[in-house]
Amino acid sequence: MNFDSSNLHQTYIDLLLEKTLGNRELAKTLFEKLFASLPKQIEQLTGFLDNNQASQAQKLIHEIHGTVASCGLVNLEYHAGLVERHIFNGDLEKAQKGFQTLKQLMRNFLDCQNDILSNL
């Protein structure tokens, strides 16, 4: 998949349409739910990691990982999986570093909201 910024919104659309077997209405609904929930989850996870609350961070990153994986958002899935693994292994320093990358990728995804929704 091509994750360059010039056509990022279309890459995400294509990934989710593949998962929904081309169902544009379902894809739009799923994107709307992602756009509503991910900013809150990112904020919560930031707090959990900053306060060394590994148990809560583990639960939340597992949820995020599962959500983006079920939507076929492979770049987010990969990095969420890395963060989850680091937290599971008790390496919060590596988890924090990996989360910074994931957070930037999430911002890039969230910045595509208007383009994604207007093209579905």
Give structural notes:
With 120 residues, this protein is mostly helical. The protein has one domain (5-118): Four Helix Bundle (Hemerythrin (Met), subunit A) (Up-down Bundle), CATH 1.20.120. Helices cover 80% and strands 0% of the residues. The protein has six helices and no strands. Helix 2 (24-50) runs antiparallel to helix 3 (54-70), helix 2 (24-50) runs antiparallel to helix 5 (92-110) and helix 3 packs antiparallel against helix 4 (74-88). It is elongated, with a radius of gyration of 14 Å. The chain starts with 7 loop residues before the first helix and ends with a helix. 29% of the residues are buried.
Residue windows where pLDDT falls under 50 for at least 5 positions: none
Question: What is the fold named in CATH at topology level?
Answer: Four Helix Bundle (Hemerythrin (Met), subunit A)
Instruction: Characterize the biggest β-sheet.
Output: none
SSE pattern: HHHHHH
Assign the CATH class: Mainly Alpha
